[in-house]
Amino acid sequence: MNKNNKMDVKIETKKGSMDEWPEPIVRVQSLAESNLSSLPDRYIKPASLRPTTTEDAPAATNIPIIDLEGLFSEEGLSDDVIMARISEACRGWGFFQVVNHGVKPELMDAARENWREFFHLPVNAKETYSNSPRTYEGYGSRLGVEKGASLDWSDYYFLHLLPHHLKDFNKWPSFPPTIREVIDEYGEEIVKLSGRIMRVLSTNLGLKEDKFQEAFGGENIGACLRVNYYPKCPRPELALGLSPHSDPGGMTILLPDDQVFGLQVRKDDTWITVKPNPHAFIVNIGDQIQILSNSAYKSVEHRVIVNSDKERVSLAFFYNPKSDIPIQPLQELVSTHNPPLYPPMTFDQYRLFIRTQGPQGKSHVESHISPR
Ligand code: OGA
Ligand code: NI
């Protein structure tokens, strides 16, 4: 598994196939609007991957909900109870919701609703932003460049916020007229929130609070936004909005749809449907933080289910290390008894995997483990 995956990545890039998709792109929105009586084969998952239920699961289990009120005070990170809850969530679930995080609810709603309006444009109006697998920037409908691969029931928009030289307004939508300004402000707020959460994550491992940030390249971190649009699906029990994957980057701050469930997180062998609190963000550990923490924190597999009567819009913000510095377990966290689990690799190299292979569960971070 390990060797083959790495080889495939190399072959794909040598062939130069990253400049174009392996087959014509079909917008899921177009399929959804064409009143299909059945689901096209490409979107039908094998029985073992199909969602067990498309109903909202009973509200018995949920990922931890953590109130951040008062945590970021002038005296530093002072609340031991909140800190401990975050620590537990990072080690056990890899996922948690935060409320009272300091981002204005109006800004959160404006960001999501501007994007909803954008996705409601006719498909033709969005084709000018059509993306390629080299940078993924723009309007897209698949992840991965393997010809004939199984496809997910979603379209998306991907853009860079940081570093500054990659932020290019021309690659952002210009409709609705407020969208660029709103995304820009939203991005700045989420970068700030992410920086604060990074301090919590470092401190909770007994490190100095800016340790993770330094390891990410200090001011030179990367930040990007992937807006997911999940149209109504005629056969939701056969499809997935997004196949199981772990996020390749550092940390993800997700703004879910306020009306429609869909995100499921793997807990042991079951899929837990996340019930978002009003105006909460869903935070999750990505592969790069699992690697830096030498697996003290877990980058957990998740997926998205779809349904037949409501579309869903979500904004996934990715906080990533500077793309060309090697990421490996922090020295402070390894010892002879706890040797480093992963060899160094830059994020540029690392993310080629998901960019070429598409979502593949946790196979990438697992195959990245150092040989023993
Ligand atoms: C992602 C993701 C979840 C969602 O974009 O990586 O996991 O709820 N999204 O859309
Ligand atoms: Ni994800």
Automatic annotation (TrEMBL):
A single Gene Ontology CC term: cytosol
SUPFAM superfamilies (alphabetical): Clavaminate synthase-like (SSF51197)
Residue span, Fe2OG dioxygenase domain: 220-321
UniProt-listed InterPro entries: DIOX_N, IPNS-like_FE2OG_OXY, IPNS-like_sf, Oxoglu/Fe-dep_dioxygenase_dom, Plant_2OG-oxidoreductases
GO BP annotations listed: cellular response to toxic substance; defense response; negative regulation of defense response to insect; regulation of defense response to fungus; regulation of jasmonic acid mediated signaling pathway
GO molecular function: dioxygenase activity; iron ion binding; jasmonic acid hydrolase
Keyword Metal-binding: yes
Keywords: Dioxygenase, Iron, Jasmonic acid signaling pathway, Metal-binding, Oxidoreductase, Plant defense
Reaction equation(s) it catalyzes: jasmonate + 2-oxoglutarate + O2 = (1R,2R)-12-hydroxyjasmonate + succinate + CO2
TM helices/strands, residue ranges: none
One protein family per Pfam: DIOX_N
Cofactor(s) essential for the protein: L-ascorbate; Fe(2+)
Family as reported in the entry's similarity comment: Belongs to the iron/ascorbate-dependent oxidoreductase family.
Name of the featured protein: Oxidoreductase
Organism: Arabidopsis lyrata subsp. lyrata
